[in-house]
Specification:
With about 575 residues, the chain is an alpha/beta fold. The protein folds into 3 domains: about 5-85, Arginyl tRNA synthetase N-terminal domain (Gyrase A, domain 2), CATH 3.30.1360.70; about 115-370, 3-Layer(aba) Sandwich (Rossmann fold), CATH 3.40.50; about 390-565, Isoleucyl-tRNA Synthetase, Domain 1. It contains 22 helices and 12 strands. The chain has helices at about 5-15, 20-30, 45-50, 55-65, 90-105, 135-150, 165-180, 190-205, 210-220, 225-250, 265-275, 310-325, 340-350, 355-360, 390-405, 410-430, 440-445, 450-470, 485-495, 500-510, 510-530, 540-565, and strands at about 40-45, 75-80, 80-85, 115-120, 155-160, 280-285, 285-290, 300-305, 330-335, 365, 370, 435-440. The strands form 4 sheets. It has a 4-stranded parallel sheet with strand order 5-4-9-10. α7 packs across α8, α7 crosses α9 (about 210-220) and α15 (about 390-405) packs across α16. The longest helix has 25 residues, at about 225-250. About 40% of the residues are buried.
Length: about 575
């Protein structure tokens, strides 16, 4: 039973002479946070402009018109521009249990994406540089979005567009030519390459001639110079080996590692198409696309003055390749908000590449804010950064220290890893992705706050309750009337709204919506656990509360899974 559908129909029948669709009405129906405001609420502000009436008058008018002679709808109230609906509590419980029972352990899985392909590009670190905390957010957000789309039935593909091309690698080659014999790359190779990169950057800042040499070296790399290509391949191999350590810790996998270099032989087609379509102009010796008619003042550079490419060219070549190879419906780029202009430019230029509108309309930049440690901003160029591997290992160690005195916890090594990694991931996802964030590891590992360990602990508690009971009742054993108290109803309504929460997160490409949901669900179960004796002398009461505990366990576990977080067996 879809309560929102029923309510939307009731409202629609009262205003059928107004130009608004029933589905739009349904979209606006909310679930109030407080039971005093009903089980569902319709904000009449949405109709104020259309009806040219005050929201409170609209709410009162609808209240008078709506027929509540319905076994599930008990009453309506008009309050401050909202029309609140009160539903029969036992019907709410029955509806939630029926809905859950269809899927049980797979609760939350959906099929709205069947037959559609979604590409999610994320992580994309630069080779020969440490994987630092600045790369963490794209990796975690991207992996969660990949999980969400996969969960909803899409053919989701995870792409790691490695930064393995450009002047920065020419700088590294030039630095290695000068000082390579000073470094042993057999141990801690990325740290040593990072030191070389830092040194060559400092030299470039002092000497313009060295910077020009680096630009020419990149041109050689593009032209296939054997020495440059061999060094570049060496740097790439060493980097991927290091990156895999982090991905293994985060349990992140990719369907493709095609980086910028993969498109080096595909860029000329981009230039040729733009030239043929009359979109290329010369500006200060460089070939650019003027986008002022699109409201973008800065032209998009396609080819530099020395004829070498730029990352915009490679991104455009990637769009062509991905459209032809994957026939995608959406291609999502999880990249920091600092690149907003870049993506506005390439998305507009892509429209000049003779592509079907399906592809150009499906290009989406999912941006996110800066991440800082309490010490401040980081920079690889200046050598001021925190490596993700170090951060993750520190989190695992600290989680282990917290758990070491808990005798009931077996396999502390595995659980420390699950809690430590989960804490980092959850801390990164619990706030809106566009917010700038100061990452505090001690706060992330707090077992009593709005954190990953807290949500994991509540999921573990549901497991322990079920284990203590020794069984999970069937749906048929549940007396719905025994779960109609406010505490139980709050929990039931949250669980019933899980699939809708997933759809909102997908629509907005916002994993924090699921993270916040998991916090609310964990808190609701904590209240339910504290106020209700679950293992009970009354078998009917016990069965009802156990089944609700089982529903909570599955929903919490699956919500954390969408975020990329595992639930330990004990904590």
């Amino acid at each position: 039973m879809d309560f929102k559908e029923i309510i939307a129909s009731l409202i629609y029948d009262c205003i059928n002479d107004v130009q608004i669709e029933k589905d739009e009405i349904k979209k606006y129906i909310e679930i109030p946070k407080e039971n005093i405001n009903g089980d569902f609420a319709f904000p009449c502000f949405r109709l104020a402009k259309i009806l040219k009436m005050a929201p409170n008058i609209i709410a009162e008018d609808l209240k008078q018109k709506i027929n509540i002679q319905n076994s599930i709808l008990k009453k309506t109230e008009a309050v401050s521009g909202y029309l609140n609906f009160f539903i029969d509590k036992a019907s709410i419980v029955k509806n939630a249990i029926d809905k859950f029972d269809v899927q049980k352990e797979e609760y939350g899985k959906q099929d709205i994406g069947n037959g559609k392909t979604i590409l999610v590009e994320y992580s994309s670190p630069n080779i020969a540089k440490p994987f630092h905390i600045g790369h963490l957010k794209t990796t975690i957000i991207g992996n969660s979005l990949y999980n969400i789309y996969k969960n909803c039935g899409y053919n989701a593909m995870s792409l790691n567009h490695l930064g393995d091309y450009g002047t920065q690698f020419a700088k590294l080659i030039e630095g290695y030519k000068r000082w390579g014999n000073e470094y042993d790359l057999e141990t801690n190779p990325i740290d040593k390459l990072s030191e070389i990169y830092k040194r060559i950057n400092e030299l470039c800042e002092k000497d313009e001639n060295v910077l020009e040499e680096c630009r020419e070296t990149f041109k050689k790399l593009e032209n296939g110079d054997e020495f440059c290509v061999n060094l570049w391949n060496k740097f790439k191999e060493l980097s991927l080996k290091e990156f895999e350590k982090i991905y293994k810790l985060l349990n992140v996998k990719f369907d493709s590692y095609n980086g910028e270099s993969f498109y080096s032989d595909k860029m000329q087609e981009v230039v040729d198409i733009l030239e043929k379509n009359g979109k290329l102009t010369v500006s200060q010796g460089a070939k650019v696309v003027d986008l002022t008619d699109k409201g973008i003042k800065t032209p998009c550079i396609i080819q530099k003055t020395n004829g070498s490419s730029i990352y915009a060219t490679r991104d455009l070549a990637a769009i062509l390749y991905r459209a032809r190879t994957y026939d995608f419906d959406k291609c999502i780029y999880v990249v920091a908000e600092e690149q907003n202009l870049h993506f506005k430019q390439i998305f507009e230029v892509a429209k000049y590449l003779n592509l079907d509108e399906k592809y150009t309309n499906g290009l989406i930049h999912v941006s996110y804010g800066m991440i800082r440690l309490p010490e401040g901003k980081m920079s690889t160029r200046k050598g001021n950064f925190v490596k993700v591997e170090d951060l993750l290992n520190e989190s695992i160690t600290k989680a282990g220290e917290i758990l070491q005195n808990r005798e009931e916890v077996d396999n502390k090594e595995l659980i420390s890893k699950q809690v430590g990694i989960g804490a980092v991931i959850f801390e990164d996802l619990k706030e809106s992705r566009i917010k700038n964030q100061v990452f505090d590891l001690d706060e992330a590992l707090n077992f009593n706050g709005e954190t990953g360990p807290y949500v994991q602990y509540m999921a573990v508690r549901t497991k322990s309750v079920l284990k203590k009971a020794g069984y999970i009742p069937t749906k048929e054993q549940v007396n719905n009337d025994l779960l109609t108290d406010d505490v139980s109803i709050n929990l039931v309504k949250l669980i019933e709204n899980f699939d809708n929460t997933i759809l909102i997160a997908l629509e907005k490409n916002e994993p924090s919506i699921i993270a916040r949901f998991s916090i609310d669900l964990a808190k609701a179960y904590s209240t339910f656990y504290n106020e209700n004796k679950i293992i009970n002398d009354d078998k009917s009461v016990q069965d009802a509360r156990l089944y609700l505990t089982y529903m909570t366990k599955v929903t919490l576990t699956n919500s954390l899974k969408l975020l990329g977080i595992e639930v330990p067996d004990k904590m």
